[in-house]
Amino acid sequence: MCAHILLVEDEAKLARFIELELGSEGYQVSVAYDGMSGLSLARESEPDLAILDWMLPGLTGVELCRQLRATGSKVPVILLTARDEVSDRVTGLDAGADDYVVKPFSIEELLARIRAHLRRTHEADEDLLQFEDLSLNRRTREVFRGQRVIELTAKEFDLLEYLMHSPRQVYTRDQILEKVWGYDFMGDSNIIEVYVRYLRLKLEKQGEKRLIHTVRGVGYALREH
Ligand code: CA
Fold first, then answer.
1. What are 11-29's pLDDT values in tens digits?
2. In the Cβ-directed half-sphere of 191, how many Cα atoms lie within 13 Å?
3. What pLDDT does 172 receive?
4. Residue 91: what pLDDT?
5. Strand order in the sheet with 170-172
6. Distance of alpha carbon 176 from alpha carbon 179, whole angstroms
7. Measured in angstroms, how far is the CA atom of residue 57 from the centroid of ligand 1?
């Protein structure tokens, strides 16, 4: 799937050059030449990454970035800065930019930064499992129900992660035992009921609706009702 990149740069020649280079790398590119059109283009097209020149007519790249963040956008932002603006880069990072590249830059450097940021987004997506207001991060092993942090033991986490893998799918007790407890599990198979009960207690502690459902005679599924 080709990533969509927004470029906001008022130097037409430079904008054209970057656009062509990005295009030949297989990226889909949208270009704006001033801050305000850059902002509306960012909101309309929801790009995977934005490259913003710092000094732009109308709205600076930093201001544009700040406005995007203010509305909750998490798009990775790379700022293009002139050498004499470098001392001011903290302002850019404070505004929520992820990175900056100092002009004049080599196109290889810019491409490398772009790849790194897109890869990071991709990995973050793979780490995060979500269903309704429940979210689980595989890398940090954090679990949230809305804004509420849910503390789980290692096994509870593994069980929930397994169920969240494919919401609405019914997992049989054998599948769960094998995947969460392992082939060599010799204990009581009631262990699943026990852990599902623990999980429900924690996930529904504040009266939230049930998400882990028993499918009688078969097993368990994560679903709305
Ligand atoms: Ca400029």
1. 999 999 999 999 999 999 9
2. 15
3. 93
4. 81
5. 170-172, 219-222, 212-215
6. 5
7. 8
CA of 117 from ligand 1 middle (Å) equals: 23
d(CA 99, CA 4): 18
What is the pTM assigned to this prediction?
0.66
Q: What kind and span of H or E run contains 67?
A: helix 61-70
Q: What is the mean pLDDT of residues 98-127?
A: 91
Q: Kindly state the tokens that stand for 77.
A: 């932002």
Q: Are 122 and 137 members of one domain?
A: no
Distance (Å) from CA 182 to ligand 1 centroid: 59
Same domain, 19 and 113: yes
> Domain range spanning residue 44?
4-127
pLDDT at 87 over 80: no
Say how many Å lie between the CA of residue 81 and the centre of ligand 1: 8
Range 201-206 average pLDDT: 95
In this structure, are 167 and 84 located in the same domain? no
DSSP code string of 126-195: HHEEEETTEEEETTTTEEEETTEEE---HHHHHHHHHHHTSTTPEEEHHHHIIIII-TT--S-TTHHHHH
Residue type, 72: G
